Write the structure tokens for this entry.
Amino acid sequence: MSLRVLVFDSGDPKFDLAFEEALARLRARDKIPDTLRLWRTSRSVVLGYFRSAEEDVNLDVASNEGIPLIRRFSGGGTVYLDRGCVNYSIVMKREVEFPISYLYGTVLQGTLTALESLGLSPYLRNTNDVVVNGRKVSGTAASIRWGVLFLHGSVLVDADLMTLRALLRVPGRLKPSVDPVKYRVANLLEFVEGLDVDSVMDALIGGYSKVLSEDAYVDEPSKEELDVARILYRFKYSHEEWNLRLPSSHLA
Amino acid sequence: MKHHVGEHKAKKGLIRIEFDEREGIAEHVKITGDFFMHPEETVQELERELEGHKLEELEQIIDEFFAVRMDVEMPYVNVEDFKIALKNALRE
């Protein structure tokens, strides 16, 4: 078996998030094989499905800086992305009894293996926070629907952490049950001198093909993937009622 | 009209339930947080189930909702966590 790898950059973070959902929908219909997507995007805030924009984001900073807020279709927390982040998404079908444990317990090892190959000693905290030297370097979210397993994450390589801190709101007082590592982030560049985003992408391809025991081959997005992403962009990801509103009134 | 907000930190993920109380009835029910639930739209369905019901009925509605939803997966979060968030909101 071989693992299809897409390295695709649309230039528009809203389209990039629409493309994520297109992958899951097309995998459900067997229009595409299992796919690992690697991508970077311009400055943006990506909200977890159940997150409230007001609570997580300094909206005045986002609007002054012209940084868009986009809701993703998976749960979890809110993240800041820019071109210093390497994002990866894996969409697959597997007959497994416990899909979530499989995704976080087995598949996510692809990211850890990737970081190990860069000379780091990563480990997981809180099930799916990837930590290096006590600092969170990557967050992960999963979704299971339409018989498809979906896992995506963002790795901080050389992101603008000043902007990240200005944009994202941290609760003033953390409950004792909340692990503060969630808010102690770092770029991989702090730990590996001269590291660039391309090396991280290569490491992720290596890590995931190893964990899934599949040879990687690089492919281009299909016309259908781009078409479905365009539709999702038009009806969902370009709309503030999806991105900013809580999902009650959303277009499922 | 009174606004109720209750939070609860589950094993993984914070759950927040809020709603307005009008004459003992819950309105504008919103459930937010950084938990995971699959499929994600289930949360809106639960919001709609709770909408328009008496406050004292809400806990039972949560129980009954999840009792019959065999398609829903909630990693590291369970029905009790939602009920605790609700109780915290009712206590406000």
